[in-house]
Amino acid sequence: EDVYKSFVSCIKEILEIKPDVVLHSGDLFNDLRPPVKAIRLAMQAFKKLHEMGIKVYIIGGNHEMPRRKGRESPLSLLKDYVKILNGYDVIRIDGEEIFICGTYYHAKSKRDIILEKLKTYEAKSRDYKKKILMLHQGINPYIKFEYELEYFDLPKFSYYALGHIHERVLERFNDGILAYSGSTEIMSRDEYKSYKKDGKGFYLVDFSKNDLDIKLLLISTFKKDGCAYITISDNAGGIKKEIVDKIFTPYFTTKEKGTGIGLYISKMIIEDMQGEISVDSYDDKTMFAIKLLRG
Q1: Which of the residues are catalytic?
Q2: 200 CB-near residues (< 8 Å, 6+ apart)
Q3: Which of 105, 135, 262, 264 has the fewest CB atoms within 10 Å distance of its CB?
Q4: What is the CA radius of gyration of the chain?
Q5: Contacts of 170 (CB under 8 A, 6+ apart)
Q6: What is the DSSP string of 80-118?
Q7: Angle of helix 2-17 relative to helix 36-51, nearest 10 degrees?
């Protein structure tokens, strides 16, 4: 249940931000045969993003990619709403072309295949100023054991959207930014220690500037009185007092290209789950709190 609730809180935040593109670097599902509830929730969420005009790129992780021929990944169920990336594409944002590429998880025995793909992506991206690489791989030194790549195997890209490890990493690399956003939920004791230290969440990346502007959006979950609570916070500037009571109103927006239905839809989804959502804004911070009955 906590995994589902963390996912719902992320989708709610995405609907509010309304980014041009969402990147998911693998292991959306934890198994080749996920529960029906997980499939239904994913389809509903990505359909909402699709209807809002938000493009989603997903690469397959090690948990959701079949090891034998003839079997399909559960990601194929989402193909009407997301682009399952195994190659490259070019997207245009505010008149600027951005090269985006990636491939699904490959075991260490297939290292040569990964390296060949990286060479192809490097050659195809040569004429683009801004370019994104998506991988779901263990990379030394970010994973000390069971890694498939060395850090020097990676060609130069503007942004490396990486998945596989559950801890967060954000650092300058190869004249770009390398990012493991980590998982949005806690699955082990070690992950709880990481959560207490760094929090859980995802990155919001602004490509409109020469230097990438990256903000971390934190998600917190806890249980109390038979309910699950989720908080989402950022430090991207507070909401003005005179409009804070209007943000859940349909079609209310302060953004030039906004539709004003993201938060309204989020509120409807949460209330359909017999939950509540509230917002608190102060100084340069905004925090949304979600309360859900535990089933």
Answers
A1: 63
A2: 6, 182, 183, 184, 185, 186, 218, 219, 220
A3: 264
A4: 19
A5: 177, 178, 179, 180, 203, 214, 216
A6: TTSEE-SEEEEEEETTEEEEEEE-----GGGHHHHHHHH
A7: 0
Residue located via tokens 């690489």 = 133
Q: CB count, 10 Å around CB of 203?
A: 19
Cα three-residue angle 183-15-78, rounded to 5 degrees = 65
SS3 assignment, position 120: helix
156 in helix, strand or coil? coil
pLDDT at 165 over 70: yes
pLDDT value, residue 193: 60
Which residues on adjacent β-strands are paired with residue 202? 217
Contact predicate 179/24, CB 8 Å: no
In sequence order, the β-bridge partners of residue 33 are none
Q: Where would I find the H helices in the chain? A: 2-17, 36-51, 111-124, 189-198, 262-272
The pTM is what?
0.75
Tell me the sheet residues that pair with 214: 205
